[in-house]
């Protein structure tokens, strides 16, 4: 245990000099003649203003009588607001008083400027200021004469109101963090000889309570608290205890980087975790779903190890998707205590379109929906989309985009539709509702959107591309979900659109050729008429309000269509 150190200086003050007796002079000369060395004899001078070092003796409670047999009497009063102790000396000689911290063999003076010794005349009082109200704080008094007995009172050691100095106790402790690599190390410097207990705890964030970790008691050795095999993290902390109070001290709060990092990316039906670490480490990961505790590990658990290198080494861990709506839980496994990190990948960034996920979904469930929705279709009849829909009917845009370029084109088309329709018409597309899709799953989101369109008599736009050509074959077992979707949307409410640079008429399957088809962007005015909006020829839109914004959206769609076509040709040549 370390304690605050202070440099001591001896001060000699000139006072009334008393003539040395012949016996004293003779004694001094005998000592010098026998040893042959100069000897400095102690001075008898006494300073009444600052008596710091004198030969005094601890007070004997049973001693009575003269000044040499008993220390001075005094009383005190605690002044918490002023952070001072008022000492009162009864009538009698002057007394020197001070505050000190009691250790095993000595009572150490306080640090500056609280180390003042004050001389108090008999029958008067003096206030002694303190920095921290601690259990080892004592009041010491002594007469000004040489070799007098000291009186000392330490009233706060067994103070009934001990909780009052708990805040002062933790403020007085100086914590020094020496944590590095896989070791948590904290050194304490104390004003009092206290035995503090410690354990490890963990926060969820910077402002939450620090929860104790099981079996994580830290042993103290000479003021050092050390725990081996720990994954250092700013939210993994020490918790110190003294009686009924506690204090949390977190290493690396100054902003130093953690020893490892992880990021996530999606590819097809896989999640790729990129690990980067400055030390050799092993990692594990598993899926976590809403309703589970953070420390609850599910099966299976995927693991990977990483060797140490001169620079941060990066390794990848590939994890298959189990079911929608999940997050990944990642932690180190080569240490005893590690904080788990939670990553939630965005569904909108996956390499598959929403329709592809639907086609690979629950065929049995959609088969049942097929029967029910086909019966409903026979009962539904309504006007053609171009017969003046009016109102604010929503438009559901379905797509099978399987590349980043095609997804950007889908997003631009949705923005163009929303700008052209206006009037509060809502355009529904999965790219704009990634968070909702991640929460409920692709299939529930799709059927909820279709139900809203049917209820509000909206329109379903099916954006076709060559990626879905083989998926409409009746001999293909994967056609059940798509046929269920087409049957669920009544024919008067289902339109087919395609970009001519990405899809030819021959790419449209026979089962869909009976639908009203619109070629983009050539048939754009006719599509607006079918959607119930006022048709606007591409060459004559300049005079309408917001025409500049609409033209910029049209031009963006053209550019993205050309880019998607170029990338598609490059991919075909590469194959």
Task: Give the helix/strand layout.
Blueprint (H helix, E strand, L loop, with lengths): L1 E2 L18 H14 L21 E2 L16 E5 L4 E5 L6 E8 L4 E3 L8 E3 L4 E5 L7 E7 L5 E5 L12 H7 L1 E4 L6 E7 L6 E6 L8 E8 L1 E2 L2 E4 L8 E7 L2 E5 L10 E8 L2 E8 L3 E8 L13 E5 L6 E8 L6 E6 L8 E3 L10 H6 L3 H17 L15 E4 L5 H18 L5 E2 L5 H7 L1 H14 L3 E6 L14 H10 L5 E6 L17 E4 L3 H7 L16 H28 L1
Parallel strand pairs: 1-12, 2-10, 26-27, 26-28, 28-29, 29-30
Antiparallel strand pairs: 3-4, 4-8, 5-6, 5-7, 5-9, 9-10, 11-12, 12-16, 13-14, 13-17, 15-16, 17-18, 19-20, 20-23, 21-22, 21-24, 24-25
Helix pairs in contact: 4-8, 5-10, 6-7
Keywords: Cell membrane, Glycoprotein, Inflammatory response, Membrane, Receptor, Signal, Transmembrane, Transmembrane helix
Pfam families: IL17_R_N, SEFIR
GO molecular function: interleukin-17 receptor activity
């Amino acid at each position: 245990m370390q304690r605050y150190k202070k440099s001591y200086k001896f001060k000699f003050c000139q006072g009334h000099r008393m003539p040395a007796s012949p016996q004293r002079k003779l004694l001094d000369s005998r000592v010098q003649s026998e040893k042959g060395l100069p000897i400095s004899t102690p001075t008898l001078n006494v300073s009444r203003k600052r008596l710091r070092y004198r030969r005094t003796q601890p007070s004997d409670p049973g001693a009575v009588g003269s000044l040499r047999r008993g220390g001075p009497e005094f009383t005190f009063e605690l002044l918490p607001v002023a952070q001072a102790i008022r000492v009162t000396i009864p009538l009698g000689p002057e007394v020197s008083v001070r505050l000190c911290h009691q250790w095993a063999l000595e009572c150490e003076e306080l640090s500056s400027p609280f180390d003042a010794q004050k001389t108090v005349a008999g029958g008067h009082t003096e206030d002694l200021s303190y920095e921290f109200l601690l259990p080892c704080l004592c009041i010491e008094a002594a007469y000004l004469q040489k070799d007098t007995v000291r009186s000392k009172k330490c009233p706060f050691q067994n103070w009934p109101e001990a909780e009052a100095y708990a805040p002062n106790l933790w403020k007085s402790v100086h914590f020094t963090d020496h944590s590095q690599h896989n070791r948590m190390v904290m050194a304490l410097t104390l004003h009092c000889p206290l035995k503090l207990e410690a354990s490890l705890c963990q926060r969820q964030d910077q402002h939450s309570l620090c929860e104790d970790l099981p079996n994580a008691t830290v042993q103290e050795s000479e003021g050092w608290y050390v725990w081996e095999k720990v994954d250092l993290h700013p939210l993994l902390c020490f918790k110190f205890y003294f009686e009924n109070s506690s204090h949390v001290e977190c290493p690396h709060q100054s902003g130093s980087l953690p020893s490892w990092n992880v990021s996530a990316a999606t590819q097809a039906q896989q999640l790729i975790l990129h690990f980067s670490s400055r030390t050799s480490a092993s990692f594990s990961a598993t899926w976590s779903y809403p309703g589970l505790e953070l420390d609850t590990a599910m099966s299976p658990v995927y693991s990977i190890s990483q060797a140490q290198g001169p620079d941060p080494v990066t390794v990848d861990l590939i994890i298959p998707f189990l079911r929608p709506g999940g997050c990944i839980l990642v932690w180190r496994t080569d240490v005893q205590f590690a904080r788990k990190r939670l990553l939630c990948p965005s569904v909108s960034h996956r390499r598959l379109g929403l329709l592809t996920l639907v086609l690979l979904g629950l065929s049995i469930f959609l088969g049942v929906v097929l029967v029910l929705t086909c019966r409903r279709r026979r009962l539904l009849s309504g006007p053609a989309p171009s017969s003046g829909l009016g109102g604010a009917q929503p438009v559901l845009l379905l797509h099978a985009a399987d590349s980043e370029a095609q997804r950007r084109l889908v997003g631009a088309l949705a923005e163009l539709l929303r700008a052209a329709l206006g009037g509060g018409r809502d355009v529904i597309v999965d790219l704009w509702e990634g968070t909702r899709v991640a929460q409920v799953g692709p299939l529930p989101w799709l059927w909820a959107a279709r139900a809203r369109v049917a209820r509000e008599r909206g329109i379903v736009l099916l954006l076709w591309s060559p990626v879905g050509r083989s998926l409409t074959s009746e001999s293909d077992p994967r056609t059940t979900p798509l046929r269920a979707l087409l049957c669920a949307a009544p024919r008067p409410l289902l339109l087919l659109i395609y970009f001519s640079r990405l899809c030819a008429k021959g790419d449209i399957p026979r089962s869909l050729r009976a639908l009203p088809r619109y070629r983009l962007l050539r048939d754009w005015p006719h599509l607006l008429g079918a959607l119930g909006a006022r048709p606007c020829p591409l060459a004559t839109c300049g005079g309408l309000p917001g025409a500049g914004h609409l033209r910029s959206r049209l031009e963006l769609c053209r550019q993205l269509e050309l880019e998607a076509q170029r990338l598609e040709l490059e991919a075909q040549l590469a194959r």
